[in-house]
């Protein structure tokens, strides 16, 4: 359906629509920048909104949401084994655990601002680094079911994130400790302030690396586009955090920007869960149509090909015959068919084994191909029986070609696994005339000639005309 729509739509309109979509994505991605710039250029006096309850509530809800998103991402990974999703889930896990501490220590902003603040950039940095690792593994083959079922790495990371939290508490309970009341709500602690800014710049740098790696590697796809927009939003959230002072408007805005990027990413995860459980390999409609076209072509190929010899099967050969008959009636193009049958093939199987028999069939095909023209059609129509359609060919020339095919096999034995296998074949030749009516009756006539070749001693070519000067005998059709 979609394909029909697209083929009937003017290309200019399709380009315009695509450009509009690109513009929208760009706008979505950079809208936070407008708010950041505005608040930076026109700060609403020195207003600060220090509301612990709201902060608790916001981080409580965020933790619940990010835990749910982590779980759904993990389910997607277990189902698809996609390594990109594994790192995404690790990132969400680390972020949820560490960010929860930011909420837990809200009260500390009164007496240990450093400890309270540090969890924000640490949680974002852990997420950004995991996303980077996910992108680095973007093209790697999926994990097997055995690997996805293992919980060891998840437990290890869970513990690692808890240890990271404890380390931060230990470090800041001494050096970062200072009282907000003493410093008049400004972050005067040099070490804590520098560390926080350093970590936040680390988030910006990692996120930019993620963005540029996606652009350089041309990573696209509907969900990866959402991912890219989230990255751009995350980078802007960090810039907003860098411009912010605790409890001022820029600081609240930074939280809101980060939350919007996270929610967008979680939307992508839910879409992945409800579709293929894969994030990186969700295709656009265009890509799906291209895949479908390729799959259909492959199906048609398989339906028309003999799997052992890779040549046309009976059905495909009959289609070619129908076309040749059509051309005979429209343009009087003569054509003939040969039916080739290996002699005593059962004995070959019995003496040398089935694998040797298969090899003989394949070798017969490649030797025959070498004797035929590109317009001739060689098909396998039975176990050890082949047919050749020879366009623009009358009986005399067809007998000549058949004789060449017979000789190419009879004169050089086939070697299989060090064993020499003498192989011959008998061939029946028939030229199409309007009396035949259809392909089946033409094949019947060639088959009749083949039967005569077998009856007269095999390793022969037989046709329905008299050619007494060739090794071929003629057969009078009844
Ligand atoms: N190796 C192998 N053998 C096959 C395949 N398809 C059919 N055959 C064998 O081909 C043999 C055909 O035997 P027959 O029909 O008795 O013919 P023949 O032994 O060639 O005897 P004539 O045709 O009378 O010379 C059977 O033994 C089949 O099992 C195949 O794909 N591979």
UniProtKB/TrEMBL annotation:
It is an enzyme of class 2 (transferase). It catalyses: 2 GTP = 3',3'-c-di-GMP + 2 diphosphate. This is diguanylate cyclase. InterPro entries: Diguanylate_Cyclase (IPR050469), GGDEF_dom (IPR000160), Nucleotide_cyclase (IPR029787), Rev_trsase/Diguanyl_cyclase (IPR043128). Residues 333-466 form the GGDEF domain. The chain crosses the membrane at residues 20-42, 54-77, 84-105, 117-136, 157-178, 223-244, 250-274. CDD domains: GGDEF (cd01949). Pfam families: GGDEF. The lineage of its organism: Bacteria, Pseudomonadati, Pseudomonadota, Gammaproteobacteria, Methylococcales. Keywords: Membrane, Transmembrane, Transmembrane helix. Its EC number is 2.7.7.65.
